[in-house]
Protein: ABC transporter ATP-binding protein
Organism: Deinococcus cavernae
Amino acid sequence: MSAAPVVLKAEGLSKRFGGLLAVQNVSFTQFAGEVLAVIGPNGAGKTTLLNLLSGVYRPTAGRLHLLGQDVTDQSIEHRCHLGLGRAFQIVRPFPEMTVHENVTVGALFGKPGANLAQARDLAYDLLERTGLAAHADKAAHELTLLQDKRLEVARALATQPKVLLLDEVMAGLRPAEAQEAVQLVRSVQGSGISVLFIEHIMPVVRDLADRVVVMDQGQVIAEGTYREVTRNPQVVSAYLGTETELQA
Ligand SMILES: Nc1ncnc2c1ncn2[C@@H]1O[C@H](COP(=O)(O)OP(=O)(O)OP(=O)(O)O)[C@@H](O)[C@H]1O
Ligand SMILES: [Mg+2]
């Protein structure tokens, strides 16, 4: 894996909110084609880290390299155009637009100067791929939770990312639905996209992640395979008293 090119490299990223260091000196490397999971108890700083990666927040300290470029001071749009896509923990499609229109917007956003016909075609392809083709003409607010999550992934894929960031896209899904979502992420990986995902559902992490980064109180406390990190005493102790079943 380490012979593959680096797609994301975080060096000492920190983010302060007033008196709280939500992300503290976080460094990690993601290689091309790799599926990297970021786990940790509630409030560990995972979503804040994702916001630093995607450009929602500027870091208080540290640098971020995306596909070999220093993007620390670059906008969300610039990172997106370079190849960084993102699905949100809180799904927020345009509710009155159709499912197809929502994905088309993603396709237009991802490529400056994209043509509408091509964007619409790409959106249809992605609806097929994410199992939403039958719902293309529904208003987005009519979708079920599972379909919402699929739409969120389709919208992120529409920006044609090389690296896809996913924040708890499985949350709230029943186990069978989560398995479908796992298949979707596998197919995304199969198409050559590197995936970085935040997830609380441990069987999903075990099944999907090539490598796991564990955060607690803003810091990376462990990194390794699923097997390694779930046997790490510091990780076990960080999860003590939470409802997460680490050895799942
Ligand atoms: N915009 C903000 N302003 C102030 N504090 C924030 C902000 N965003 C997050 N925080 C705080 O930073 C810490 C990390 O939050 P974050 O949302 O990154 O955690 P998380 O690991 O994603 O948690 P969860 O698993 O519950 O989604 C928390 O203490 C949170 O209250
Ligand atoms: Mg979060």
